[in-house]
Amino acid sequence: MNQKIVRVAINGYGTIGKRVADAVAAQPDMKIIGVSKTRLGAEAYVAQDRGYPLYIADLTKKKAFEDAGIVVTGSIDDMLGACDIVVDATPGEVGASNKALYEKHGIKAIWQGGEEHDVAGFSFNSSCNYQDAIGKQFVRVVSCNTTGLCRLIHAVDGACGVSHVTAVMIRRGADPHVVKKGPIDAVVLNPATIPSHHGPDVNSVLPDISIATMAVIVPTTQMHMHAITIELKETTTREEILALIAAHPRLGLVKAVTGIVSTAELKEFVMDLGRPRSDLWENGIYEASVSVVGKTLYLFQAIHQEADVVVENIDAIRAMTGIVTDPDTSIQMTNESLGFVAIGSE
Ligand SMILES: NC(=O)c1ccc[n+]([C@@H]2O[C@H](COP(=O)([O-])OP(=O)(O)OC[C@H]3O[C@@H](n4cnc5c(N)ncnc54)[C@H](OP(=O)(O)O)[C@@H]3O)[C@@H](O)[C@H]2O)c1
Description:
Elements: E1 6-11, H1 15-25, E2 30-37, H2 42-50, E3 54-56, H3 62-67, E4 74-75, H4 76-81, E5 85-88, H5 99-105, E6 108-111, E7 123-124, H6 126-129, E8 138-141, H7 144-160, E9 162-172, E10 188-189, H8 198-203, E11 211-218, E12 224-232, H9 238-247, E13 251-254, H10 263-272, E14 283-286, E15 291-293, E16 296-303, H11 308-321, H12 327-337
The protein binds NADP nicotinamide-adenine-dinucleotide phosphate.
């Protein structure tokens, strides 16, 4: 590993962008050179409080920002001229329209799961295909649900082979602060058609996995919940699966002794552990649910939609810039810099 410090810009300082910015700032081999906003609001104050240079999309708004006490360093174009790599965390389907800008600046770019695979031509998960991302100019970090599925399926496939996966995603209705989507009171088929897009999205990372997914949205903001059935190629035991989870840096085990049987209690637990923003970066697999019947594995896992992709973005930066070529080293650096080991493996 050389000692180069990668200069990172965050285009879109919202739910994901502000978390990735804080995670980048915690890395010894990366530096935040700026974050962007289009509108004046609470997040602009947070960026300033964190000491991140703020760049805005439309410089005609500079006076309004400065009248509100927010220092504007320049335009998004200026920010892109000062970085090695940009993490695009603009709202889903906005990011693709920024591609020409990133190409113009000749910089590397990471998009999020709200964009199609084709925007980058490569979909990333640290545990599955880190080395294939080394040196790439463009990468897409897959969505929160796909990230959680890929981590688990890849680990189980490596241990005992996967014949087929059936996964039901019980999805949060909105992120906690997104009040414009509420109040709501319904279980919504999303989509009504089967399979949902999650299965094909898993195949963008793990092309050889047979998988069918179904999804509903429910009135909660805390986390997603996955009900998963995996048909195995080889016989295993519940104990072997629990050991596999405990040994994995991004698979957390919600121990039965905690008494936690919900996303709300899990969120409270993570908050009490002192995690910033009560973020659960790893999968939250409920120990009590892990069952092996014949050659079939069943379990429930909670996925914190705002958090699990954050650590993946950090590893993607290391892979694309080539500053660390070993996935395990990068994953360990990322976890250590954020001060966590996966729950249940402490
Ligand atoms: N939230 C999740 O649960 C989640 C999980 C995994 C992946 N993702 C993906 O991550 C991406 C970002 O989602 P998010 O939830 O973080 O969205 P978000 O909370 O809406 O944040 C997006 C931010 O981008 C800014 N923005 C809007 N238009 C922009 C533009 N043209 N140029 C620059 N910035 C712009 C907005 O800031 P202004 O207020 O200044 O306009 C907003 O704060 C999406 O692809 C999404 O699918 C989201």
